[in-house]
Amino acid sequence: MRVAVVVILAGVAALVAYLIGTSPPNVVPPVMPESSLVPELPPWPVFRFFVGLNDFLRFLAEKTTPPDIRALELSNAFWQSVVVYALVKHGALDALFKEKEAACGAVAEMTHTHPHYMCRFMHAAATLGILEEPVPGTFRNTEIAEELRTTSRDRALWLSAMLRDSYVATAEKSILTGEPGCVEHLGAPWWEWHAEHQVESEMFDRAMKDFALRTAAAVVGALPLKGDEVICDVGGGIGTLLATIWEHWPSTTVKVFDLPETASRATAYFKHRGVKNASAISASFFDPLPADIKTCDIIFLKNVLHDWADDECVKIVANIKQSAAPGSRLAVVEAIVGTDGPSFERAKAAVEAGILSTCPMGAKERTLAEYSDIYRRANVLLGPDDIPTVLKLRELLSVMMMPL
Ligand SMILES: C[S@@+](CC[C@H](N)C(=O)[O-])C[C@H]1O[C@@H](n2cnc3c(N)ncnc32)[C@H](O)[C@@H]1O
């Protein structure tokens, strides 16, 4: 018995030493605003331990579920996102936040919804861990509900309201015609259609902001800076990444480059978050970029390349290379396929569902070798075996860094 305890303790000590010894360093920025999500990042060894444990438990759960049940769960998986949609869209989570705990009938009254259906959706949400149901018919929010009510709200609405229909069109039509899901669903390529539809375009930008908020915190927790850099983001949306970096490193200067409508929303967003030293520049990454790009020390390209086929990616990266000052650095933030355990690889496949639905043919999540091939074709990497430096983040995405 004593021997077993000693062996287990030695195993645990070896695992802890291994996790600590092989983890990347955490970067601590000079300023930590009260609203910062950076302190929520678990220390690297803890993060890696729990990701590994999650992979293992998920493997066990799936291996011990009979195939017919697993097949049913998979076929029926849509119900979970519909439950989320019902509660977020109709404000049930806000009502529960206000009341702390409430009967579903009272929530229905507050949200002007039908009590029968609201109660059934709330009960379903309790089975999913979104709500607690301490006594039948009475509910309160969990941490997941709070996440859905705040940081992830716009993303949840967009995924259910916009993306789902395009993904279904991809499965029903694109697979036969080869036309992208958004063209089958909306009748036009994604960006063209959004240029004509302001409400949906704003919704898209807000959803991207939700995706970007936690990644931005993870970038701040991983990217060493001097603090006086000019940091740019091409196709940077409304500027979520840059606003977050600036709040933690207020001596930096930040510049977002995006299409005209989005650039003007970025100006408003910078103002809303109180970001100084910020500008939003209207530009297309398919044309040579405006002269401002020459001032950039670091140029981010986040969740842009996965939207395009290889030839377009080469054009975007080559345009940046030709327009930027030599000595600046390119920082491509993407999920890199084949670098993580099964849970994260599955999450990357889920991201690709969005890419297939919204982007032109050829858009996809890529491996490091596939990205490196693009950088080589754009003359950013020169040697046949060169690869970018990969900075892992404490989440799904990584940063590929390379000099321009
Ligand atoms: C998937 S979003 C990513 C936004 C942001 N980088 C992020 O991660 O939140 C792609 C971005 O590319 C921008 N975009 C699309 N076509 C563009 C073009 N030709 N030139 C510049 N930006 C473009 C879109 O407006 C959008 O902001």
Characterise the protein shown here:
With 404 residues, the chain is α/β, with parallel strands linked by helices. It has 17 helices and twelve strands. The protein has helices at residues 2-21, 44-63, 67-75, 78-89, 92-99, 104-111, 115-127, 143-149, 153-177, 181-186, 190-195, 198-220, 240-248, 260-272, 310-323, 342-358, 368-377, and strands spanning 102-103, 131-135, 138-141, 230-234, 253-258, 278-282, 298-302, 329-334, 336-337, 366-367, 389-392, 398-403. The strands form three sheets. It has a seven-stranded mixed sheet with strand order 6-5-4-7-8-12-11, with helices on one face. It has a three-stranded antiparallel sheet with strand order 1-3-2. The protein has a two-stranded parallel ribbon with strand order 9-10. Helix 16 links the parallel strand 9 (336-337) and strand 10. The longest helix has 25 residues, at 153-177. The protein starts with a helix and ends with a strand. The mean pLDDT is 93. The structure holds S-adenosylmethionine. Residues 191, 208, 211-212, 235-237, 240, 258-259, 262, 284-286, 302-304, 307 line the site of S-adenosylmethionine.
Biggest sheet overview? 7 strands, mixed
Q: How large is the share of residues in beta strands?
A: 5-15%
Overall spatial form: globular
Kindly state the percentage of residues in helix: 40-55%
Tell me which ligands are bound.
S-adenosylmethionine
What is the H/E string?
HHHHHEHHEEHHHHHEHEHEEHEEHEHEE
Rg (C-alpha, Å) = 23 Å
> pLDDT under 50 segments (min length 5)?
none
Return the average pLDDT rounded to an integer.
93
Number of strands: 12
Instruction: Briefly note the structural class of the backbone.
Output: alpha/beta
Number of helices: 17
Intertermini distance: 60 Å
Major sheet strand order: 6-5-4-7-8-12-11
Domain O-methyltransferase dimerisation: 72-148
Pfam families: Dimerisation (PF08100), Methyltransf_2 (PF00891)
Domain O-methyltransferase C-terminal: 185-378
Protein name: O-methyltransferase domain-containing protein
